[in-house]
Design goal:
Length: about 150
Amino acid sequence: MWRRFGEWRGERPFWAGTFTLCAGLPIMYFPYTHLNLQGVALALSTTSGAASLIIGVLLVVLGVSLWFQQHARVFAGVATLLLSLVSFPLANFGGLFIGLLCGLIGGSLACAWIPPEALCPENASAFRASGADTAQGAGAVGTGTGD
């Protein structure tokens, strides 16, 4: 079962989806909770609650779509980057910078991910056998094309 999960994970931008999904959670959470920091009550509920909810839900949906619709990875990556940047002024500094940073990392990973089939044939079999999550061999992508 663990090996099947590794194969499934290797065929899609898994970590991009995970970071994107994790970006939406703090953006949705902080406007609707009251934090207590050593006796000091901190309420972040402002008029940005609706914007936080919309941005957070969209980021969660984009994260799940990166897992199951990997052909839309560039669109989802760019949308994640834009929503993360928009969350900074609209959603309590991007979920206290946690959601902002996770969204920027997830969107960047989604835009940079290369499917295993796009690699050279000799590298694609090694890629699947290693169980790697992302294509990190940038030199392998341009080999044999006269670059």
